Every structure is written in structure tokens, then in C-alpha cells.
Amino acid sequence: MPHSHHSHSGQFCSHAKDTLSEVLSRAHSLGFTHFHLSEHVPRHSLIHLYPEEIEAGKTPEDLEATFSDYLTHARQLQSSYMGKMEVLVGCESENIKGDRSIDELLRILSDHQVRGGDPLPTSNASLPSSSQHPSVAGLGVVDYVVGSVHHSNSIPIDFDPPTFQKALDSFQAEAPAAAGGNQDGDMSLSSYDRLMIDYFDSQYDTMKRLRPEVIGHFDLCRLYFPSKRLELSRKEAISQGGGDGGDQEEDDPIWSRVRRNVEYAASYGALFECNAASFRKGWSSAYPGKEVLELIKAVRGRLCLSDDSHGVQAVALNYHKLRPYLRESGVEEIWYLERDDERRAIDIEAEEALRLERIRSEAPGTGAPTRFPRGTKAIRMGREWMEHAFWDRYEAIVGV
Fold it and tell me: CATH number of the domain that 95 lies in?
């Protein structure tokens, strides 16, 4: 059960530390049974490079070469841990306006597949020829995708407070209608409201175009203001163009998007990560916050654990806070990904028809598939996850 679906290393990420091998060694020593790799996909414009990348003289071409090296090296490490710890090779997405992030990612995954053949030992060879479907993007190159958004209006929202303020200011300067239609462009919406609208629309686009198996830090847009509410009060809904507030949720331009995204991801069986990185950034909860967590549970969405580690020192960091947060929130089951060795064909068209039926129900996650075309399966663990022997071992080693 002990697992993480989201990790980075200094070998392939400029704002992380240590080698990928050192990160995996730490996870293994802590008793992880499943530790999955998800280095960032490259950004493709000079204006989207981070300061440490610019200082190091990096170019977008360098980032692409580094990502390709990661895909090759990670496969080698995956093989070396076979039988000792389950290691999946994935990637963490971007969706940046003007950067063609998703288009470029699809190109890179396709090119690497051509150059590298089919390095995935569990590739589903009998999969039907639906190569254009997002759920098979990168088949044979990555085992899974962490669907994340880190930008609004092409500006990073998780780099530092001044850069986040720059992103906020960019929405203040926009014409109101730019935020998306009559209601969403209403002058009464704050710049923060519009930033969140843009964030959740980018997240939805990521889900539709990549079908990520894991949804990364769902409400990252609240990083510097974790108490920022995603759901307006009835009074606010009325003042922002919601009529008499009778159907408050439908009228709420932010919460309606949150619900749309949660239901969409739940309908195809995605795992929402409970990301412990928020604790080291001052939150009293994991990503997602309480109200989103309650919504995921209500629609029968699936939850998994992630440390979002950026080096050895952050492997399983604050897992001792993550467990009580989830336990006190009534989370009685946890899911995790592992290789799907059955290699049975998946009828993608039939699965999509069933998904469309589920998404019209009150709980779209009910009956969602547990097998994914890229070659993994979701495993459920009931209440026993809370008392797994890992927790005692982990707490003894890290001294909490």
C-alpha cells in the first residue's frame, strides 16, 4: 500500500535535488511498495523558462533532451527495482497558453516511441487501433500521466508570491469578457475569481486531451491563499449574475467548474492525489482542500497518496500529517496504480459510451473502469490503509 504517484529529482528538474536513483533508494528504505516517477514535461518557449533554468543557460531544446533522457533512464531504474518495489514511469503535464504544451507533449511522446521502440514491458499489444484517443497518448513510452496545471494567463502561479501577484494583475488588466462569456466576465468577479476560472478551464482541457490517470494538486490555484473559498455564498451568487440564487451551484462560475472537473475525472476512473506538499507550504490540509475532498467522495471519485517530492529530503515528507487529515475527513478507501500484466484488449469506444452514461448520474465514479489503456490498473485498499505497518516504520525512521 505505501505509495506516491508524484515525484521529481534534481537530475531531471532544476528546482529539485539529488539523483533519481537516490530518490528511489530513499523510498525503498522507507518501506514504499509503490513509488512512481513523474518528472515535468518540457516547456517550449523561452519566456516560460524559470529563473534557475535561465541562470544555468538552459534552452527549451535542452529541456526536451533532458526529458527524453529521463524516459530512458527511468526505464532502466524501473527494471532494477522489479520484484522489490513497483515503479511506474510517468510524467507531469503542463498546459500553458501560447506554449502549445499538450500538442508538444504528444509530439515528444510519439517521437520517443519511434526512437526508442516499445520499452514498456507491460504495453498492451492487443489494444485496438484508437491511437488518436487521449487515453492511449504515450502508450509504450509512459505508464501514466499526472494531469497538472501550473500557470494562469501563461504566468506561473506556484513559483513565488510576487509571480502569483503578477498573474492576478494580468486578470485585472483584462477586458472583463476575456474571462469567458457574459456571466464569467461580469465586472463583479475579482481578478482572483477570474484566475481560478482560467485555472479550472485549463485543468478541464488537460483532462479531455490527455485523460491523466492521476489528477495533480487539484486546487493549486489556492496555494498562497488556502482559505480562499471555491464556492460562493448565495448572496455572492446573486450579486455576480446568478439571478435569485435559486440554483446556486449552477450559477457559481467557480464551483460549477470544480464540480464539472471532478465529475469528468471520476467518470473515467482517474485518481485524485492527496498531495502532502501543501503542508510544507503552510497549509493545514493536503491538496485538495476539505470541500473539494468532500465533493470527490460524494461522486465516488478515487483518492491516492502523493508526496510531490523534489529530492530525497521530501520523500514521504509530511505523510504523518496526511494520514490524520484523511482519516478525520472520513476517507475509508485509498487507491493506487500498478502495472496491468493481463494485457487484455480494452474496447475504448465501449468504455467511452459507459462513461457518458455515468457522468449523467449523481455519482459518476460508480462503476468506473479500473484498467487504463496506457497499461496500468487501479487497486483499491479499504480501511486497512490507515493501520498498515508502513506507518510505524515511517514514523520510526523519520522521527515523528
Answer: 3.20.20.140
